[in-house]
Amino acid sequence: MVKSKKLTREDILEKKRIAERARYQRLKSDPTKFAEQCEKEKLKSQKKKEEGKVKLVKDVTPREVSLARKRWRENVAASMKKTKR
Question: pTM of the predicted model, to two decimals?
Answer without folding.
Answer: 0.60
